[in-house]
């Protein structure tokens, strides 16, 4: 099979011919239809996550995939050949940017019916991170005020929709074309972070979802109400600042969880939730797509299709 691999940190992805992997009794071989890129892929490629996720090279990139079951292991009873499935692979294993991937039986869920097959590849990490942060960590409730940074990004676009779905008041930061995107996704108020200081525009926020880090994260403490919650996905929050502002703060790193992914698929099928797609490209254009992901300018998800 063909697989897109890196031979070391900071190496550009190249396509290699590699053996199609074998499966164990509790595993499934999935023929990949599409995969999506995440900021995590760039961090892994550059070695920024080495302390947490040391990679063994050569490493096949990618964690988020959609495809069809090719073979099921002898202990697998839930899936059969031809089933359309969605999954997030383990970070250290990777493997989504290839023609086939071995997936644990308990990582697979059925593809949602309300989005296209290829677009479903954009769901696992981005939607999972937003869901985990808002509902499992912050326990978001109806009527609460939420500030979502980078509302036109992968995580932010899902966070806006999830927060709106439970009746929260949603404020988002964005710029350029992302301003209109955040509005269309359901944000009640959108702040242009290039021309406006969000600290001067909002206050008494119950929950901040920070996907940016740095100065944005530090300033976010100033808009939270006493007892509010800062959720950080890009870097651990400053505990001293949290204590000084009398708020809670957590670093949210998405972990694969079939139960969570099933809830997300159910929510998508039961509503008008959308996968915000920046672009769809052929696997032959993966190098270009990877550069675009690394630029930080993607509006939503980059989907890579395997023909």
What does this structure look like?
The radius of gyration is 19 Å and the shape is globular. The two termini are 13 Å apart. Strands 3, 5, 6, 7, 8, 15 and 16 form a seven-stranded mixed beta sheet that branches. The protein has 307 residues and is an alpha/beta fold. The model has no long low-confidence stretch (mean pLDDT 96). Helix 2 (124-137) crosses helix 3. The protein has helices spanning 39-45, 124-137, 154-165, 177-185, 214-220, 239-244, 258-269, 286-295; strands spanning 2-6, 14-17, 27-37, 59-60, 64-72, 84-88, 100-104, 109-110, 145-148, 169-174, 189-192, 205-210, 224-232, 248-251, 277-282, 301-305. The protein contains eight helices and 16 strands. The relative contact order is 0.15.
Topology at a glance:
Elements: E1 2-6, E2 14-17, E3 27-37, H1 39-45, E4 59-60, E5 64-72, E6 84-88, E7 100-104, E8 109-110, H2 124-137, E9 145-148, H3 154-165, E10 169-174, H4 177-185, E11 189-192, E12 205-210, H5 214-220, E13 224-232, H6 239-244, E14 248-251, H7 258-269, E15 277-282, H8 286-295, E16 301-305
Parallel strand pairs: 9-10, 9-12, 10-11, 12-13, 13-14, 15-16
Antiparallel strand pairs: 1-2, 1-4, 3-5, 3-7, 3-16, 5-6, 6-8
Helix pairs in contact: 2-3
